[in-house]
């Protein structure tokens, strides 16, 4: 099939839709790539989602796929973006830090190699905050350039939200996938800890870090998850007509914007009306110390992980990072760190018990709409617990805030039950979305 | 202080002894480095422990330390070796694979940076098997060149055992620290999973991988552990005069050489005589499936972690690896992998309960002496359980086999109780060693 040329609509399709069109011979891989590139060219000056983007390299990949006689895999011809904390053999990777400006890894991270193996087209590297911590990159919110897109996977959230690519990979140590996805009105999925391999990803705090996937449909999330597990993609099972949903106001509920609390409460009521079994879940007070626990684990590990950079490139590390996670990690003793890990393990068992009664928990993704200002990427506390618990989570773009900007709702599943979580999220999204 | 020139005895000192001499002004860092280099020059043709060694670079580091007015840290002037699976900014790192021949990383792994921060002198890169799996490197047993030194941390075990360096870092996914340490008559310590950070280490199977430390004294192990945790070194507490020791014949006891079983049984009896409370521990039959469980976790992850190499450099991967861990990982389903992880988590809780009654468990490190032949690095099964359980372990050079070669005994501790494990190992070593 010959390239059909630039098609303005193609860029807004989901990955699943793109795959169907390409397989049916109704669009070439090159046409899809061209459409995404044209949209990026148009929008990038405002959004600045990309740390590295080379159209020639994108088109060369797409044309090579078009020259194949058959589909190379379940992502054949689908453009995807990769957070610039993740190594790529053919594009520089700077980890959001001037220390690594222009750094060229010699191999692909496992997630990139698995995406390419499935026929995906690597569009480019999306902007990350410095080392996936707090110091922001250049990206702006796609709907309001005065506002943050969220972080640390800022470019991945903005690129998918702005229809530049249908899929992007991020990473999360606290809230770095759920938060930008919520702000940018996309689905953001954080898997069960350990499932999606982190080889070739610059580690922040390995006991908490996971990949995260951003997309504009849950089918796309499920497809991409199967690809990254190197499994044959299989459609999601239908959710039960009456999923058991625990409505969980975490100990940090008071930090929510009042409108977000109201929207979540209304959603819980609405879910009952459409047939779900919704019941309030109050976490035991053991869970109250989550912020300190998360800080101990993340900072102790970060401080040691970045010894090379701290010893050799201190002046090129932001004050935010020096005075934040690095200082916290210096102040955290090994005993505090071990206590925190043991606390987390005990709470995971408690949470397993709670999940005996529920398919998923419904809770907040973020405090509210993306805040005005580019110096902060927003409040991360609503994810710290679930990240530390190693449970899968997905933010679903359900709400609109007072300024017309999106606010996601977070659904949290039991460890290793990611497909059940995605199926229930599909059910919820179809009824409330 | 001026360099005192070559001193033949210096190379055989422990790290703790070297530090004392250097601090007392009785030896320079350069003299220590020269002594180690001279010994290596003498022995390397037989042992072949080093993948990369550049004397000029070693001496430059030592001289720079000598130019400091004061000690730069607790390892000031101590030469250390690093398994060539671990990145170093100033020495190539080839991961035991022709794919990465001459590869030069741009930064130090966290463990290397922490060692240098403490004043250590990086001697060079020690030989690893291919990607820390089974296909052997060139290293031979220091006491018999017909025999394997064990693997995958082959060069680290041989270099410390042969007095080339007092300290070396290895890694363990199954038995890759305990086994070569046992064969080469050194202490080999595998920490509680997660404690010593793995940033900059080529991952095999991240749910199981840890660093491991090799040394010729337990004080050295403790010192190096403190350095790699970025803690102020503190001497080990004295062990109780009557440590509670569980003697654990694992489900795999029948794979031991009969002499090893006898030596371990005699050691258990002897420990009772010298005052320990020794009691037999029989693991519940739940633990019997450990070999299959370990295979599922290690191979599922390895297969996905190495997607880049498999897709792009298949012909440069050994048949051993292709037909072993990679094929196993391809055959392992996601469901089997999840079941294996859940099994491991449940067994860890059972083991915590068992440890309520014991300070440490005494068990086998290896089947027996290092076997003849360089095509295999020996039977790893005696470590698979403890590795999967995430517990700390140390092999203590207690025994001599029928050919006069060393056989270690393994002591296993409770998670996060590494110092207690080391203290009891000291107690045992002083009484039986």
TrEMBL record, chains A, B:
One of its GO terms (molecular function) is catalytic activity. InterPro entries: Amidase (IPR000120), Amidase_dom (IPR023631), AS_sf (IPR036928). Coiled coil: none annotated. Residues 133-157 are annotated as: Disordered. Residues 32-422 form the Amidase domain. SUPFAM superfamilies: Amidase signature (AS) enzymes. This is Amidase domain-containing protein. It comes from Entotheonella factor. The lineage of its organism: Bacteria, Pseudomonadati, Nitrospinota/Tectimicrobiota group, Candidatus Tectimicrobiota, Candidatus Entotheonellia.
């Amino acid at each position: 099939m010959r390239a059909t040329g630039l098609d303005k609509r193609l860029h807004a399709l989901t990955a699943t839709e793109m795959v169907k069109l390409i397989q049916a011979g109704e669009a070439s891989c090159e046409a899809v790539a061209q459409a995404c590139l044209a949209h990026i060219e148009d929008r990038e000056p405002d959004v600045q989602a990309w740390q590295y983007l080379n159209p020639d390299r994108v088109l060369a990949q797409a044309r090579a796929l078009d020259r194949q006689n058959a589909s190379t895999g379940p992502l054949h011809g689908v453009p995807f973006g990769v957070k610039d904390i993740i190594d790529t053999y053919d594009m520089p990777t700077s980890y959001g830090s001037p220390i690594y400006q222009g750094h060229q890894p010699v191999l692909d991270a496992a997630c990139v190699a698995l995406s390419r193996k499935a026929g995906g087209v690597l569009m480019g590297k999306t902007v990350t905050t410095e080392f996936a911590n707090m110091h922001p990159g250049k990206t702006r919110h796609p709907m309001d350039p005065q506002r943050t897109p969220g972080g640390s996977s800022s470019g991945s959230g903005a690129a998918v939200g702005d229809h530049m690519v249908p899929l992007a990979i991020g990473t999360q140590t606290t809230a770095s996938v759920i938060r930008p996805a919520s702000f940018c009105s996309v689905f953001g999925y954080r898997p069960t800890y350990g499932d999606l391999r982190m080889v070739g990803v610059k580690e922040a705090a390995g006991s908490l870090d996971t990949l995260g996937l951003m997309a504009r449909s849950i089918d796309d999330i499920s497809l991409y998850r199967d690809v990254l597990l190197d499994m044959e993609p299989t459609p999601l099972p239908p959710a039960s007509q009456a999923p058991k949903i625990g409505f969980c106001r975490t100990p940090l509920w008071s930090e929510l914007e009042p409108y977000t609390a109201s929207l979540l409460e209304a959603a819980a009521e609405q879910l009952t009306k459409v047939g779900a079994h919704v019941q309030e879940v109050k976490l035991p007070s053991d869970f109250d110390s989550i912020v300190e626990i998360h800080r101990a684990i993340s900072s102790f590990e970060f401080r040691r992980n970045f010894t090379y950079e701290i010893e050799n490139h201190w002046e090129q590390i932001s004050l935010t990072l020096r005075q934040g996670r690095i200082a916290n990690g210096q102040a955290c003793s090994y005993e505090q760190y071990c206590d925190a890990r043991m606390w987390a393990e005990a709470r995971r068992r408690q949470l397993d018990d709670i999940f005996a009664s529920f398919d998923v928990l419904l809770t907040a993704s973020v405090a509210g709409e993306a805040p005005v200002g580019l110096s902060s990427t927003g409040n991360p506390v609503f994810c710290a617990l679930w990240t530390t618990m190693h449970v899968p989570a997905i933010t679903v773009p359900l709400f609109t805030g007072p300024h017309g900007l999106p606010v996601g709702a977070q659904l949290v599943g039991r460890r290793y039950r990611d497909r059940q979580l995605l199926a229930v999220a599909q059910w919820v999204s179809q009824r409330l979305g």
